[in-house]
Design brief:
The protein is mostly helical and 164 residues long. The protein has eight helices and no strands.
Length: 164
Amino acid sequence: MPRTLPLKHHLPDDEVYARFRACRDATERARWQVIYLKTQHRTAKAIAEVTGYSPRWVRALIHRYNDGGPEALRDRRHDHPGAPPMLSPEQQADLDAALEMGSAPDGGPWTGPKVARWIERATGRAHVHNQRGWEWMLRLGFSAQTPRPAHDGADLAAQAAFKK
């Protein structure tokens, strides 16, 4: 007969169920469901069939709960704020002012690569990808300003008549 994994009772069973039902984060909710089903004396294999997790992961969650209590089931991915912004608020204001002036330093319209080169100069970074320049343009509310293509076989008289 296989050994069953015991569950430490950090919380009463009805509190485990209440947390399972009240949880709004999908990952945490699934973890609470595993613990709730374990309070019903189900095996790891049976819990895995219900939740879609592997029995190994079910056992890992039970061990995590036994060792760390309710706090151990929290989704810790939300604790990582990500990388700091590439530009400080002052540099963002300077870039916004530069884009407002209309034309890039070379006289043409602003493009993603031109903004990337501007960011390189402003931040002292060795390399900024062209895509980052485009993303900063969009973040500041700008879009690519390219003229519409002219068609070779366009009939100017027909176009003027259509506009009327």
